[in-house]
Structure formats: structure tokens, C-alpha cells
């Protein structure tokens, strides 16, 4: 009973904290373009010449003026952030007062050089990057679901859910027979999905992976094919070099024999006899 009471108090505090957050929250994924609205702009300035944007990455750092490198203003003075990355996450202020939060949802293998084809499994980390004033994410707000929409909990065939720590949710997926499956990470808040991202592990080439091949043609991995071409090229070069050397050697040998016995050249023997080089032997 006391535990339920504590959870209720925590939930009330969180809702109160979020209610005191002013401004809009924009969600995006890596590489996308994000448009941050400037609601408080003056409509008497249609050219947006008097509109200034400030940026704050951490609450402990001062605001900085935006230099517009990789960014631009839209016709309604909205700030367009192109090719969003983790460096762009933070608090934006239009005109110094209107606040807009830019959040980023990413999925990455852990470690970054993990090879599903080699290891037979891969650990995925779904991370929500956001400004520090928004606090940590509540437990259960970043679930994983499969291609059927089923929430993945604990451990089952083909996956192991490690849980959520702050704003990071971890899931290990294993190689299974059949086609590759799709895993989706979501950020849910106030009974709604704010943003989601999909991930399909590349298990192609493994012994347990079945590939649709109606003609029963063996599919050779690209890397093996490239190595075969390289080895064949080396063999051709070696054979060609041997044939050229052999031909040069034969030519030199013939010339040497001809020069050894030129016409009208006398050969002197130990017994004192002398014969022409072009004379026939008896």
C-alpha cells in the first residue's frame, strides 16, 4: 500500500514538472530535417530579418546565438535543422523567449562494430537524446515491439529484453530461421507514441537464415566473390609472367647457339686440328 502511494506521488510530481515545461517538443531521427516553429514572432516582419534564434545544449551552459551552419529559416521564420545529429539536440529559443525542444531517437548496435552475421546475435540500444531540463525518461516509456506490434518483455525465442535505464532501452536479438524480423523502438508519453524507429538486423549469410531462391542458385557473399576475382587475377599475372620469361629464354638460347658457331669461324682443338665452324662432322 505504501509502495503504491509513493508511486502515485512520484507520478504526480512528474506530471507537475512536465506541465511547467513551456514550449513545444519536436521529435526526430538521425539524418532527418527538423522544423522548429517560431510562434511568438512578429507578423509585421514578413522577411524574418528581426528574428533571432538562441541555442542551449545543457542547462548549466549559457545560451549561444545560432550561426545557421546546417540550418536555415523557413518562410514563417521557423528554424530548419538539416541532417539532425546528437549535436543538434537541445533547447532552442525564438526571439529569446519562445522555447522549442529538439529530441532525437536513435537505434545503434552495441558495440558499434558488432557483426550480427559473425556473432549470431546483436545487442541494440534505443536512446532518446533530449535537453537536461526535461529530466530522465520514466520506466516503460521506451518499449520494444516486433513486426506484429507485440511488446517484447523479459526473454523469449529470438530476443532478450534487458530493460530501460534512464532514456536508454536495450534489446538483444538472435539469429532465427526464416526471414529477418523487424524490431521497433518507441517513445511513449501520455498514452501516445511520440516517435518510433525501426531496425532489421542483417543476419544474411548465416547457416540458419533461409533465403528465397526458386532457381536453387547458391548465393555467394559479395566479399568471397571479390576475393575469388582477385586470386584469379593474380594467377593470370603469374602464368603470363612465366610464359614471357620462357619465351625470352628460348630466344636467347637460340641466338647464343648461333653466335657460338658463326660461319667461317675456325675452331682449334687440343690435338692441333683445325676445322671450320660450318663444316659437317664426319
Quaternary assembly: single chain
Helix content: 10-25%
Mean pLDDT across every amino acid position: 74
How many beta strands in the DSSP annotation? 17
Number of domains: 3
Describe this structure in words.
Keywords: Membrane, Signal, Transmembrane, Transmembrane helix. This protein has 282 residues and is of the alpha+beta class. It folds into three domains: 86 residues, Immunoglobulin-like (Sandwich); 92 residues, Immunoglobulins (Immunoglobulin-like); 63 residues. The protein contains three helices and 17 strands. It is flat, with a radius of gyration of 37 Å. The N terminus and C terminus are likely disordered.
Give the helix/strand layout.
Blueprint: H1 2-19, E1 24-28, E2 34-36, E3 53-56, E4 64-65, E5 71-73, E6 79-81, E7 90-94, E8 98-110, H2 116-119, E9 121-129, E10 144-145, E11 155-156, E12 159-165, E13 168-174, E14 183-189, E15 192-199, H3 222-260, E16 266-268, E17 274-276
Parallel strand pairs: 1-8
Antiparallel strand pairs: 2-6, 3-4, 3-7, 5-6, 7-8, 8-9, 9-13, 10-14, 11-12, 12-13, 14-15, 16-17
Question: What features would you highlight for this structure?
Answer:
282 residues; alpha+beta; Immunoglobulin-like; 3 domains; nine-stranded mixed beta sheet; three-stranded antiparallel beta sheet; 3 helices; disordered N terminus
